[in-house]
Amino acid sequence: MIPSVEQFPYVIRLVSEILSSNGSSSMATVCAGSLSLMDAGVPIRKPVAGIAMGLISDEKNKNHKILTDIQGPEDHYGDMDFKIAGTDAGVNAMQMDVKIYGVEVEMLGKIMSQAKDARLHILKVMTGAISEPRKEISPFAPVVLMLDINPEKIGEVIGPGGKVINGIISSTGALTIDIEQTGKVFIAGASRAIAEAAFNQVKSIVQEIEVGQIVEGKVVKILDFGAIVEFGPNRDGMIHVSELKNGFVKKVEDVVKLGDIVTAKVVRVENGKIGLSLKALQKNSLSTE
Q1: What is the DSSP letter of 21?
Q2: Of 176, 165, 122, 152, whose CA–CA distance to 11 is shortest?
Q3: How many degrees, rounded to 5, is the angle at CA 202 between CA 201 and CA 206?
Q4: How far apart are CA 85 and CA 90, in angstroms?
Q5: By the 8 A CB rule, do 262 and 278 touch?
């Protein structure tokens, strides 16, 4: 019933505290645990309920009584403690302890049938309280986003001595960024906005830049022949002076200045070097086709 890591990338810790010990206290934990998971927003497939069945019989099992939802004395003095848990679609788990030589098949069928009636009744009460998992997790829980990257690009995300990944955490306020050797990245933030900011930075590092792509970045360096624009952690490109605008440009600073945020089009990708253009986005830009 528990969702996959891809669907719900959280570690789940469920604690049950019960002030007594009865034959059905463990099954009460199953019911309460299912309710708590749904209330917390964990997308379990179906609610699960459990019931503990008991048995009182004579020495030869000819006369017997099947008990539903046994208590402590019935567990202690009875002949069987049979825990059965499942959904409305069927049984998921069971455990049987007996103090007699065994349970006949016919008797077992009756026990399972009686347990099913009890389980469905409990599920009806449970779904009356909460019918499905909440759509959002608690606002007090961190938001965890997941991204699959090419394992060969893990080094680019981490950077020398962890410079890049620590820079992302520092600039976005992300709680953690964990990377597995398979390329699976888990990003945790105190809010969705924080997690998404870190997610987008990681994505910008690993994405393959293609000609025609539009990027936004900051002018971090002015050269005599153009400007360097940083548009992601450890990712930059150059706008040649001829690509700053239509017409003659005497000085680069006449068009862009250090610290400006610009939107540019990728016009060239060669040997890891990226050429950008502001001119290509201008309405009056002439087509070269």
Answers
A1: -
A2: 176
A3: 120
A4: 9
A5: yes
The model's confidence at residue 286, banded by pLDDT at 50, 70 and 90, is very low
Task: For residue 144, give Cα distances in angstroms to 28, 175, 193, 194.
Answer: 30, 10, 11, 10
Confidence of residue 90 (pLDDT cuts 50, 70, 90): very high
Helix (H, G, I), strand (E, B) or coil at 262: strand
Distance in angstroms (rounded) separating the CA atoms of residues 131 and 122: 13
* Residue range 221-241, pLDDT digits in tens: 999 899 999 887 678 899 999
Q: Are 71 and 20 in contact (CB under 8 A)?
A: no
Domains located in the chain, CATH noted: 25-129 (3.30.230.70), 143-206 (3.30.1370.10), 214-281 (2.40.50.140)
User: Using 50, 70 and 90 to split pLDDT, how confident is the model at 64?
Assistant: confident
Residue type, 172: T
User: Over the stretch 93-134, which tens digit does the pLDDT of each residue have?
Assistant: 999 988 888 888 888 999 999 999 999 999 999 999 999 999
Per the CB < 8 A criterion, the answer to whether 145 and 172 are in contact is no
What is the end-to-end Cα distance of the chain in Å, rounded?
57
Question: Does residue 236 contact residue 272 with C-beta atoms inside 8 Å?
Answer: no
Output the pLDDT for position 287: 42
The answer to whether 84 touches 109, Cβ cutoff 8 Å, is no
Q: Which residues pair with 86 in a beta bridge?
A: 49, 91
Cα maximum dimension of the chain: 106
42-70: average pLDDT: 88
